[in-house]
Design brief:
The complex is a heterodimer of chains A (255) and B (461).
Chain A (H helix, E strand, L loop, with lengths): L3 E10 L2 E11 L4 E5 L6 H8 L6 E9 L2 E2 L5 H7 L1 E4 L6 E5 H15 L7 H14 L10 E2 L5 H15 L3 E5 L7 H12 L7 E6 L3 H5 L4 E6 L2 E6 L2 H9 L2 H5 L7
Parallel strand pairs in A: 3-10, 3-11, 6-9, 9-10
Antiparallel strand pairs in A: 1-2, 1-4, 4-5, 7-8, 11-12
Helix pairs in contact in A: 5-6
Chain B lengths: L1 H20 L6 H17 L15 H4 L4 E2 L20 E6 L2 E8 L7 E5 H7 L18 H8 L5 E5 L9 E8 L5 E3 L2 E6 L4 E11 L5 E11 L4 E9 L5 E10 L4 E8 L4 E10 L5 E10 L4 E10 L5 E10 L4 E10 L7 E10 L5 E10 L5 E9 L3 H8 L5 H17 L6 H23 L12 H4 L1
Parallel strand pairs in B: 1-7, 2-6, 5-8, 6-9, 7-10, 8-10, 9-11, 10-12, 11-13, 12-14, 13-15, 14-16, 15-17, 16-18, 17-19, 18-20, 19-21
Antiparallel strand pairs in B: 2-3, 4-5
Helix pairs in contact in B: 1-2, 2-5, 6-7, 7-8
The chains are: A alpha/beta (255), B alpha/beta (461).
Chain lengths: 255, 461
């Protein structure tokens, strides 16, 4: 059974049709990259899969592990194994990073009928993941993302993913704004999580990230539809020719 | 005006009976103190919203009610289980303003500490009180303080002798019980901390047995001698129809350091006055508060910080969380007297409104008569951020827990200003429980039923 099945998904935001019929199937172990120009609907797709309620689904269906994803609340989707690494991670003053992470892990464990972990049990796991992402333990005593640099925020997203061990990870422009060193660290963290029973959707604007995280499939999203799919070579082609050519083969957006 | 006179008439009757039987009625200075206070109360009457200090708080629900003086009444010890505070040095219990020896835990006697009820102290040794009782509370400017002083007969009395350091908190529990007719109680507390002392005081106000009309008009005078380090906690968690007016008057001598923590969770119509006077050079005062209202609660915080000497510092931080039709007020007045050079005064009020009908009025008021001072103030009003809520939920945390976490994050700013102590643990536990309720109810948006609950105190008055 495929892990994720998106069938003719249509989404409207503020009276604008953003997704106009998306079809995509993702199997366990696969890494899919979704590329496309600004405003094509990449982030909307990522947010809808994480069940952001502000986005109204107007048609289609999404099955996750055979279950109706669109009927789930964000927390249910997360507990079922969907993880969204945010393009803009949110700063939450007053909630400690370590406390937040442990609360999230315990929420997921509780959902699956597992015992909650106390702070002592949690520490070794936590340290191991911090090391993987080359993160300073001091960041953990600070409030969630508060005062973090752009690179620290993105690493913190991958840290959460490493702790929560999702079935499907969606990385929304995790590469944007990163220098090459940070990009390599983040990619190392992501690659360490590739496994035969986990899938990933890597949303990006640039081909650069895909040198580090090599996808199995590349899809081009333009004007609310997937207009082209292929292997990793498609990303290179896009880098060379730009999106304009691909978009030209489709109907232009109405003015 | 006629209505007001009638009300004064009722109090006159109560007062003449009271003066005949009150403890210390034969002690000249105390008799004079009560009489002058009552005279002042009759002169000014209850404040109206025309009075600038009461602009946002309509007390006509109090001024129009006919109260009786709360009689002594009994409470079963088993009903107090949940109100005990772990690791308290002692806990004095008052039922409708009257000391209950049976319910109290007087703790171990420490040579440097005297803890007793004011009523007993008046009976046994009134002379020991004369130097402090009524010396600080300003009955001229506030009718409720005058009324409290007129009817002062019982409350907590604490005397900490020079150099005594007390780590565990000294706790007072004030219980209002439901009565057939509206009652007024006037707890009066006196805390004298001599020089170089250290202590934590907790005043905890609760209700037992239903939401009958009850008015608790309480006042505390706290004297902190040179270098004394005192923490004071005021916790209001009476039922949502209760009236509570409290005044905390702090007198700070040279280099005395006081932290005042107010935590308002309950009460219907609540006025929390905190009035420190930084009388000695180099004294410091932290005025920290958290008020959380829902239903039709009205929570008014009136701060009056007087800098009377040079090199003093004051910090005011109040955070408010308001849901449903709750109305919060923060009035931060700072007076810097002419000689109080090098004053450093800061004031911050932050608020979170959880519903469209919730309301906050925040008002700074700075009066500066010295020319070399630093005074700052600021206020913010916001809502729970949808973005943050989604972020937490996208990690598996359910909506109610996520809301609670965000509320707690906001409240924790106040908790973090409290030094580690059993008093803080107690408050922290109360706040956690209360915020979970708020997080739950915000989601349900359960409509309040009775007519009065849909009206605020302005409309009821």
């Amino acid at each position: 059974m495929s892990l994720l099945e998106i069938k003719d998904l249509k989404v409207r935001v503020d009276n604008h049709d953003i997704l106009k019929g998306i079809n995509l199937t993702v199997n366990p172990g696969e890494v899919h990259s979704i590329m496309g120009p600004n405003g094509s609907g990449k982030s909307t797709l990522a947010q809808v899969l994480a069940r952001r309620e502000a986005y109204a689904v107007t048609g289609g269906e999404v099955l996750f592990n055979g279950k109706d994803l669109l009927a789930m609340k964000p927390e249910e989707a997360a507990c079922e194994g969907i993880f969204l690494a945010f393009q803009y991670p949110v700063e939450i003053p007053g909630i400690g990073n370590a406390y937040f992470l442990r609360s999230a892990l315990n929420a997921v464990r509780k959902y699956h009928g597992q015992d909650e972990m106390d702070a002592m049990d949690f520490l070794p796991l936590f340290r191991e993941k911090l090391k993987l992402l080359d993160m300073d333990e001091k960041l953990m005593n600070r409030s969630v993302n508060e005062g973090f640099s752009g690179g620290e925020k993105k690493r913190n997203e991958i840290l959460q993913m490493a702790v929560l061990q999702p079935r499907l990870a969606i990385l929304d422009e995790t590469d944007s704004g990163l220098d090459i060193d940070a990009l390599k660290i983040v990619s190392k963290g992501v690659n360490a999580m590739r496994s035969p029973d986990r899938a990933m959707i890597v949303v990006t604007h640039y081909q650069r990230l895909l040198n580090e995280i090599v996808p199995d499939f590349v899809h081009v999203l333009a004007n609310g539809r997937i207009v082209k799919s292929g292997g990793p070579e498609l990303a290179l082609e896009l880098e060379e020719k730009g999106y304009a050519e691909i978009e030209d083969t489709r109907q232009p957006m109405p003015a | 005006m006629i209505a007001a006179d009638e009300q004064i008439g009722t109090y006159l009757e109560l007062f003449s009976q009271f003066q005949k039987r009150a403890p210390g009625h034969d002690v000249r200075w105390l008799r004079d103190l009560r009489e002058s206070a009552f005279a002042r109360f009759c002169e000014v009457g209850f404040p109206t919203t025309h009075n600038e200090d009461w602009r946002f708080t309509n007390v006509s629900a109090i001024s129009r009610a006919t109260f009786e003086l709360a009689p002594k009444s009994a409470v079963a010890a088993r009903d107090l289980g949940s109100y005990r505070i772990a690791n308290a040095a002692c806990q004095l219990v008052f039922v409708n303003g009257h000391f209950s020896r049976e319910l109290s835990n007087l703790g171990d006697t420490s040579p440097g500490l005297t803890v007793s009820s004011l009523g007993e102290q008046i009976s046994v040794d009134p002379a020991s009180l004369e130097a402090h009782l009524g010396r600080y509370l300003n009955i001229q400017r506030d009718a409720f303080s005058a009324l409290n002083t007129a009817f002062a007969e019982d409350g907590a009395y604490v005397h900490i002798r020079r150099g005594t350091v007390l780590l565990n908190p000294i706790c007072f529990l004030f219980i209002s019980t439901a009565r057939d007719r509206p009652v007024i109680s006037s707890p009066r507390n006196l805390i004298v901390a001599e020089s170089e002392t250290q202590a934590t005081i907790v005043e905890d106000y609760v209700s037992l047995g239903g939401d009958a009309t009850a008015f608790c008009n309480t006042a505390t005078e706290l004297f902190a001698g040179d270098n004394a380090v005192i923490s004071h906690y005021m916790i209001e968690r009476e039922h949502q129809e209760a009236f509570n007016v409290s005044t905390l008057r702090l007198q700070q001598e040279r280099s005395a350091n006081i932290s005042s923590h107010s935590v308002l969770l309950g009460g219907g119509l609540v006025r929390n006055n905190v009035h420190p006077v930084l009388a000695g050079e180099g004294s410091e005062c932290l005025i920290n508060g958290l008020f959380i209202g829902n239903g039709h609660q009205h929570l008014d915080n009136y701060m009056l910080v007087e800098h009377a000497s040079p090199h003093c510092a004051s910090r005011q931080f109040y955070n408010g969380i308001l849901d449903d039709r709750a109305h919060g007020v923060f009035h931060g007045r700072i007076i810097v007297h002419k000689d109080a050079q090098k004053t450093d005064a800061k004031q911050t009020n932050r608020n979170l409104l959880l519903s469209d009908d919730a309301r906050i009025d925040t008002k700074p008021q700075l009066e500066i008569y010295a020319d070399d001072v630093k005074c700052t103030h600021g206020a913010t009003i916001g809502q729970i951020e949808e973005n943050a809520l989604f972020y937490l939920r996208s990690r598996g945390i359910d909506e109610i827990s996520a809301r609670k976490l965000l509320l707690l994050a906001f409240a924790s700013e106040c908790l973090e200003r409290m030094a580690a102590n059993p008093a803080r643990d107690h408050v922290e536990q109360l706040i956690h429980g209360h915020l979970l309720k708020i997080a739950n109810s915000t989601k349900n948006l359960a409509k309040l039923t009775t007519e009065d609950r849909d009206r605020n105190w302005e409309e009821i008055g």
